[in-house]
Write a structure and sequence with these properties.
CATH class of the largest domain in chain A: Mainly Alpha
Order of helices and strands of chain A: EHEEEHHHHHHHHH
CATH architecture of the largest domain in chain A: Up-down Bundle
Radius of gyration of chain A: 17 Å
Largest interface: A-B, 41 and 41 residues
Number of strands of chain A: 4
Helix content of chain A: 55-70%
Number of domains of chain A: 2
Shape of chain A: globular
Strand order of the largest sheet of chain A: 2-1-3-4
Oligomer: homodimer
Largest sheet of chain A: 4 strands, mixed
Structural class of chain A: alpha+beta
Chain lengths: 229, 229
Amino acid sequence: MPDYELFYWDLPFRGNFIQLFLEEVRAHYQKLDASELYPDRNLNLHYPGMAPPYLYDRRAQVWFAQMPAILMHLAKAYEYLPDAPEQQTLALKVILDCDDVLMEITNHNGMMMWDQESWNDFRAHRLANWMTLFERTGQSHSLKTDAGYLLGPRLTVADIATVALFGTLVHSFPELAKDLEHNAPRVANLCQRVEGRPAIAAFLDDQRRELGNGYCGGQIEQSLRDVIG
Amino acid sequence: MPDYELFYWDLPFRGNFIQLFLEEVRAHYQKLDASELYPDRNLNLHYPGMAPPYLYDRRAQVWFAQMPAILMHLAKAYEYLPDAPEQQTLALKVILDCDDVLMEITNHNGMMMWDQESWNDFRAHRLANWMTLFERTGQSHSLKTDAGYLLGPRLTVADIATVALFGTLVHSFPELAKDLEHNAPRVANLCQRVEGRPAIAAFLDDQRRELGNGYCGGQIEQSLRDVIG
């Protein structure tokens, strides 16, 4: 029996934040399709959660929803948090920033489709600012262009989240690699280093062979491809 | 010198999550207008944060962004978290759920205005489901219609957040009180009990005298008033 069950779609988008972490710590987990819970059972879970991803923690016998909460739960269990309380808060803040970027890049889960003009504006300003924000967070600590991590000398959950965001983004949309390199060279390098860690590399290799450059799916992914391509 | 500085607009929306907490624990804090930091200085903070609210923790000498991170930081400092690790995760999950409802009720920070049909549908289904979700979370623990709290017998940050969400909502839009009473009677009662706690009651009394039923401001608040009224 696995220690964890992760319910998400066959897409990297929000699921890879958790899956990269589970791979990094070599957790014993099973990935299941979100449709087993959502949308029919999600309000009837012991602790109901509105949307995937869901993590079932078998030892605690608890279902969790909300990606940032799941990731903080795992980070605590596997000691992937920074030591100081302020830095732990900052780790959560980084994960929440990542989640905001996911929202924004999909135009709020596909609430509207991108058009060329709105995308160009988003890419040149807001997305560039987000990249800058992550870069400066790393600069305040020990992130260098070839060593160190976002919140200090040790790999933490904040790095996993940052790489799940930007590493996935530039894999799925290689045209954006130069944006990241320009606005956040240390983060770009961090993505390569973390994606190269043995367990994560093996996982991504399999996943990318299977899913290609799939990102968030649906019409909004197509809309992104139309405006980026 | 205050221990904390909170930067937000003169609106309850996301700021009251933090301010209700600071009042409850009788923290020594100062409320400042978000325009002192945003949008000109936010990317130049030591730990840059994209949008208000911001909290400056004078003892730690750190700026924090992201409401859920700020609230978890304060909850840890003032021991307003449940005891068990799983319940601490759940407290964060509840705060994140609250933040999602804020997003949804403002149509993603006013990305689109509400029209009558889309609002009616949201109110009847999605908003009702959110209320049900909070009610069932409380039912899994000791929340009763006249006693107990969302995650157990003790008041935690999850209650403060839930009340900052639904208490504020039904104050600002009294027409929604019957929705909450119908879908989440225990949560409705929790709002009344927590809003009645001495420090919070005194704060809300002042705030509501000053701001009336102001909620999130801008065109989106007007759009909400048009479709609810």
